[in-house]
Structure formats: structure tokens, C-alpha cells
Design a protein that fits this description.
3 helices; mainly alpha; about 80% helix; about 130 residues
Length: about 130
């Protein structure tokens, strides 16, 4: 059971996983480009960065990509979950409105039938 009281189906779980994976890939790519740019700047302008070992430079690059993947995956999953909650609320409201509409139609039909009997309303009292 999710925090919002909705149970998850296999299709919903698959869609959530897909959205989070897409977010992770996009975030890793964005932050990877940013950390590569920072690494290039560090190589060109910083003697301290140039003195680092290649292993540590790779670690810095990969950690930036990992952070970006986490952030974007979480952002996309939360947006997907919010969209699903809003969709469930919308469907619930549509069902409620449909019930009100059917009740209204029934009331109008009864009134039309009542007018068909000499223009008097049917009260049930004889």
C-alpha cells in the first residue's frame, strides 16, 4: 500500500521504474557533462587538479554522474507519482460527477413524465 492509499499494479510499477531509469540516465548525462567541463577547467587552470591521480579524477567524474542520476531519477519519479495521484483524483471526481448527472437525468425524466399526465406533478398522493 502506498502512502496515498493506492495499491500499485505491475503496470504502474513498471512505468515508475521506466520513468526513474530515464531520469537517472538524463541526470547522469547532464552532471557528467558538467563535471567533464569542470575537469577540463581544472586541468587548464589548476596545478592542484593536475597533480591528482587519474583514479581520483575518474572518481570525481563518476561521483558527479552518480549524484546527477540520483537527483534526476528522484525528481522524475516524484513527478510521475504526483501525476498518478492527480489522475486517480480526477477519475474519482468523474465517477462522482457521473453519479450526480445520472441522478439529475432521472429527476428530469420523472418531471417530464409527470407533465405528460395533464401537466400535474406526480406526488404519489391520491
Amino acid at each position: 500500500m502506498s502512502p496515498h492509499g493506492f495499491s500499485r499494479t505491475a503496470e504502474e510499477l513498471s512505468a515508475a521504474r521506466s520513468e526513474a531509469l530515464r531520469g537517472a540516465a538524463v541526470g547522469a548525462a547532464k552532471f557528467g557533462i558538467a563535471t567533464a567541463f569542470l575537469g577540463l577547467c581544472g586541468t587548464l587552470f589548476s596545478p592542484i587538479y593536475r597533480s591528482l591521480t587519474i583514479q581520483f579524477k575518474v572518481y570525481l567524474q563518476v561521483s558527479g554522474m552518480t549524484l546527477g542520476g540520483w537527483i534526476e531519477a528522484d525528481k522524475r519519479f516524484r513527478a510521475w507519482e504526483n501525476m498518478r495521484v492527480m489522475e486517480k483524483r480526477r477519475l474519482k471526481a468523474l465517477e462522482r460527477d457521473e453519479g450526480v448527472w445520472k441522478k439529475w437525468e432521472k429527476m428530469v425524466e420523472e418531471e417530464v413524465i409527470g407533465r405528460g399526465n395533464g401537466g400535474e406533478k406526480q406526488t404519489g398522493v391520491k
